[in-house]
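Section 3.1: Structural characterization of target chains.
Under the original work plan, the team committed to producing a structural model for every single-chain target entering the pipeline before any wet-lab resources were allocated. The record below documents one such target. The sequence was received from the expression subgroup and is listed exactly as submitted; it comprises 140 residues.
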Amino acid sequence: MEEPAPAPALDAKDVLAAAEHFPWAVVAPGERRWPDGGDFLDVALSAVRPEEREGYIERLEAFVEQHRARLEEMLRTHGLGSRSASHGPCAQVGQPETLVILGRAEAAPFLLRGQWEEELETVFRDDLEFAWGPRIRLSR
């Protein structure tokens, strides 16, 4: 019996390019708080299960379109220039990597949380979860 082919690798550049196609959810490159969100993107992509990799970009695009109103509202209320930004802004709001993070938080919240806690400070994820809303907040 043949072993199944390994899951295709996700190319972070391709995923990021797809996320950048949603100008209504992403601030302009010159307005981004951190120009390289590679660490955040890498952790979010590590939460994509092997069986989810094929067709992942299309599912990300569908997620973004499905949540368009919610993403626009989050950018308006928590992005640069918002009232909440003056009280400690969520640096990730408006970053293209955020679309990937939120997509994984909706699809695999516990996996994302576990991967994140191994690699990054949780304050960034917690701030983003707060800005996104209660659907993905997980009790400790």
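Residues 12-23+35-133 form one domain.
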